[in-house]
Amino acid sequence: MDAPKIEPAVDTDQTPAAPALPETPPAAEVAGLSVRPVNFANKNRAKLLVAPPEFDPQAVIRALELPQPKSVLLLVGDTATLQGDDEAHLVQLFSRGVARALADMNALIIDGGRQTALSDLMGQAVADRGRKSALLGVAAADRVSYPGQPDAGANREPLDSNHSHFILTDGSETDTLFKVADALANPRSVVTLLVGGDSQARRQILESVRLGWPVIALRGSGGLADEIAALNRKQPAFIPAADLAEIIIDGKLYVAQLRGPISAFQRLLEQVLSLQDADDELSTLELVWQRFAMYDKNANLQQRDFNRVQVAILALGVIATFLALLETTLKINADVLTNPTFRAIDQVLFFVLLLIPITITALIAAANRFSAGNKWILLRAGAESLKKEIYRYRTRVEIYSDRETRSVSREMKLHRKEEMLSRKLMQTEVNVAALKPYTGPIPPANVAVPGDDGLSFLTPERYITYRVDDQLNYYQRKAVKLEQRLKRLQWLIYLFGGVGTLLVAMRLELWIALTTGLVAALATYMEYKKIEETLMRYNQTATELSSIRSWWVALSSEEQADPANLDKLVGQTETTIHSEHAQWVQEMQDAMAELRAEQTEELKRQKENTTSESS
Fold this sequence. Notes:
The chain is an alpha/beta fold. The protein is 61% helix and 10% strand. It has a ten-stranded mixed sheet, sandwiched between helices. Strands 7-8 form a two-stranded parallel sheet. The termini are far apart.
């Protein structure tokens, strides 16, 4: 059934009118469920349903004739931990932030329904906005009272007079609440807003996390909300409470400020709700992730092929030197040449030494022809440029901010960026490569950050955790590994140099060519891998990211809510990471050019030697 149109009525005492509901007889049986109208003193008229412990949530929704919302807000917690003028801030946050945003988004609100402080504040906020949002209260039947109740008892809390619908249950309030919310969740979105909170709220938040629903914790409201906000900002290595650990590690958590700008809270709420509900928005981001994953996969494949060829060329060069020295040693020894077995070995060595230069020549020609090294660099640069746009888009900053997307949607801007970067990449050598499609998860497992689905809107706290901290840890780990590799290679060079000196002392000068070849191969490897330069860049980038993080943490809550500072946080972070990639691309392209020139010269010398030997 279509939802009735709800409009504020004009009343002489200016009390907001109740939503127009279909006439329902008292205690009418609808689909086997008891539904009755409740007329409150403020002239609000609600529909109430008494649900048995076991019930079909879809039947309850149909019986109550709940409006079909685009999204659902689940309000949990309490106001017991509010202090001073916190409640005044919460009143404005509910009225100007929650109620206004949800009225524009055709959302349904679900809470406890009783005339407790939290539900009462939400009910009044919705009433102040003309009752444009349906407000569903879920409560235990034996704990509440309401006008016209047939079996009212003592010590019961009255239902809030501004709600539009109620579900009373003889079973568990929490189970009923989540049963109904989950039935509304498909295909709609559900977001849980936590204010304060105790042990019951913790169970409700845990259930939200397990259902995959985002949670917005209102920092400054005390209780569980502040505990979650603190743990989410700086996760400890171990959280003793198992349920709280699951919430922090597995939850899609967002943090809002009770005393922050209401516009910032409203923006966060709208974005979380829209991201959960907007299929077209997610598909745009998924397509860009898909493109990134394809470039990333093919960059790794090209890098693997390039490294294999270069290592093979260097190894064959060293092997050729060793075999040539071995053959020379055999020829010097006249007794050896008279032995038929050693003569056969000498013949084998001759043919092997003939084949190795041919193989090296073929590998060098193939490396120059197929340009796996250049394709690797270009694909990696394209992938990282797309990742930069993904994180700018997910944080809604700069060109993707609300103020910059009034005429052109952020999805269209992301599409245009992806199209421009892809077109630019296809104008390079990559255009002659058959790129293998990517069929794995989104985002790819090798770049996914634990706890981040890669698609959700990123608050500053989540951006710090999933982007800044992740990249900072990456550069620090890689710097340690690069330093270890650099030391190993340098020690090998020193070792082979020492062996060369030892060979001179042992009057085996002929074999010095082998140690010299090994040293040259290691030096060439270090040069084209740019290990020392990369280590310096990684240390510099890690330092800059650490400084950005420290700057952000030092800001006050009001300064962190300033869109200009958020632009600065994301802009400086992405610029720092992109600059490191740009330097790497330039250094590697220079290294590729030098390596190609050296190998081309080597190829030329090989041809000249072959020609002279033929003559």
